[in-house]
Model the fold of this input.
Amino acid sequence: MARVDLTIEVCGMAGDGTIAAGGLLNEAMSAGGFSVLGFDSYPAEIRGFGRCVTRSRIGTERIFALEDKTNVLISLDDVQSRSRVPYLARDAAVFFDSNPPVYVEEEMSLAARVEPETTLFGFPMADLAAAAAGTTRGRNLTALGGFAATFGVPRDLFVEVITKKFKAKGNKVLDANIKSFDAGYAYGLEHFRDRLRDTLKPLPGIKKGPEKVMLSGNLAIGRGAIDAGLKLYFGYPITPATPIMEYLAAKLPERGGRVVQMEDEISSIGAVLGGFYAGARSMTATSGPGFALMTELITHGVMAEIPAVILNAQRGGPSTGLPTKTEQSDLHAAVFGGPGDSPRIVIAPSDVEECYRYTVLSFQLAEKYQTPVIVLTDFYLDNRVENLPIPQATEREIADANEYPDESVQGAYKRYLMTDSGISPRSIPGMEGFTFSATGLEHVEKGTPNYTEENHMNMTEKRHRKIAGALEDLPAPVEYSRGGPLDVGVIGWGSTFGAILEAVNIANERGLNVGALKITSIFPFHGGVIRAFMNRCSEVLIPELNYEGQLANLIDHLHRKDVVRLSRATGSPIPPSLILKEIETLVPAGAS
Amino acid sequence: MAKDHVVIIGNGPAANEAAIALRERAPELRVTIVGREHVRQYKPHFLPALIAGKITEHDLFVRPIESYSQAGIKLRLGQEVVDVDFDTRRVILAHKEVLRFDGLIIATGGKPRIPEPFLVFQDVMMTLKTLADARVWIEKLARVDSVLIVGGDLTSVAFAKALVSMGKTVKLMVDEHGFWPLHLGDETRQEVAQRLASSGMELVACRKLKGLARVSADEIRVETDCGRYTVGAVGAFFGLVPDVKFLARSGLYIERGIIVDESLMTHYDGVYAAGDCAQVYHPALRDYWVSIGYRNAENLGRIAALNLIGGKVCAETPPESIFHVEGVKVPTSWWAEI
Done:
């Protein structure tokens, strides 16, 4: 079986149906048995202008990251697509509308920009859609049809996913979309005969069925929260976290939970603390600007030792920043943000499957360690889709992790009892004889305010001891290497790790001696494990999507020399090729 | 004469030679080649060898693709010109793009000629002009064992020999006009026919093709004035005619090809035609001629380019040379009256 590794882009103007086309493409390829990793990029504005791009990497092997070169560009708007030409692979295929409404000058033409090796597939998308369905609205489907015919994707595969998407809108809409698709498909078979390929024929032995589902990071977080027994969601819309609230608003009430849109992020985190205080699993999801507003109340959770789950879907910053671009630049804010010494747990999934598992895990961590748990994702992870086996949490993973007070202390209950672990059994308001005094003021064991030197020192130490102890329940770093000394060790976190792993794999295939270390527990972190890895590496490279090198700032003291930083603040994911290039620079000449 | 943007329509020997000459002599110009085929320039006379599996597609190409960008030539492949507006000096592409030019060289070459009596059969006959045609032949020959070749142009003999080398049964049907555009005397033609027959081809000695009918995807029934038989494919090899239909309403003077003077200029200033698509005035002969052959096309392309940038070079008749058909020497001027 020939190895397939294709990156396919759909590019258009907002309102062209670009994102919808990309979604259908991903679903169809997944149904065909391929591994899929897709990512959408769209403008911050609601509608009417701005470029939309969906990128999908389709492969026979597992896909870890997006590549920077595109093999197939499906253009729904040539003016927008011109900006994508520099990203085309040498022998790319470009599908475009050959009969636009008006004549196009050379300067504005997509066909004028492409390199000669590019194979052009021009066809009258809008005309075909209009003739088939009476409207040009389905030209995105017509474009997909032309692509599918050319690359050997069976019609039925697409018809199935189109039906799944549009059947709820009635037969008329469904019929129009299928006709639009068919028009492009028939045109492709007839007119592109000399250029037909069977690259994307469904893989043999693929059984249809629900073994794999297409999930975005956001959807996985939503599902994880529901499976973990989420009862209350409070939030305020913000890109890129809003889809989590949308999903939960549709699904949580069916499970007896509630979703409340609050007036802002401050009230959201307040309500989450209130929900957990009352014993109900609660969460909120936001992005950088909203997270900044939550900071003070997060530290209230630290001080009052109330659980909370906060999802921070990072985007380009600071301030409003780049709402629809990706960045990993809230690490400092998540770990250190807020007044006082306020230790909290910060974890960061690195792929869609981990988005599910880490969301599930976050509730138990919050309950057991009675602290806000921050789950750090980013736009690239939230918005990307991957096809993966349906994730399912075990009973053990979703079990109640609260440590309740013993009956014997009823009436003499100390909410902030000093313990070796720092964990004080937590009562739930309403438990008679177990008064829960929740206060943001420094307090003694019973919860009454106290500002003495000794008490503040002891209580601060207790809270830190508790969080440090959480390491035993936090996922340890995972190493990917042959073991032994390494010329280069690449450490990464979050959405960037997929690109790191792919780059390291390629480097090793080329005979280099390179390893990767994935860190998902950002705070507290497994310093011993990280240091041991670093000690085996001649050079340590830390690629991340921020300017300051925020993970590097956190852990570089563990290395005997300066770590090499590959810090990018471009708003776009780091491609594996860039990391590979840096690795090759760091490997000593002649080493293999 | 300095021109800002020279557009060259076509991607064959005349077009490429013109582009190279322009870049060498007038590097300040912007030069764009627009070719309808999806591949860069190749040697069409090697297509029979490709079909026979003796060479790969890679061997066909004249120069690396990178050489175009290195030379500063914008190469646009798979893009078809559908019209030219000489008044506003705009080339219109099939995908509704407007390409403005200051100078224009039309070098679209030829397309397979199907004589009128055979037009009714053209749907069942295959030609061999382009790489795409060759790919279709390769697919077809994987399924069929016998081929009838009608006509005897420059390509057909090489193609027939390629088929024989592949173990295919080849029937060759030629009449007195069968070696167009070469003019063979009776004696020479008989000698050529004899040599071809001894090469393993079956010469079909009939004068009229009465019918071709597709029985199935890979079966064609042939009816001639001297019998009926079935073959897997039928190839038409009657030479080429200028490929200029897209200019029919452009205002250019077109007879068989684009009418140009001895400097290869049309009646529009700065607009030239070269290669197989041009019908060139020859002052000494006081008549128009078209050229045939790869080398001639290259030569004309270069002349058109030089004249476009202010040269005064005449397209002269190349000297007579010898063309070999199965070892038989056939003198030809490489020019043909059409």
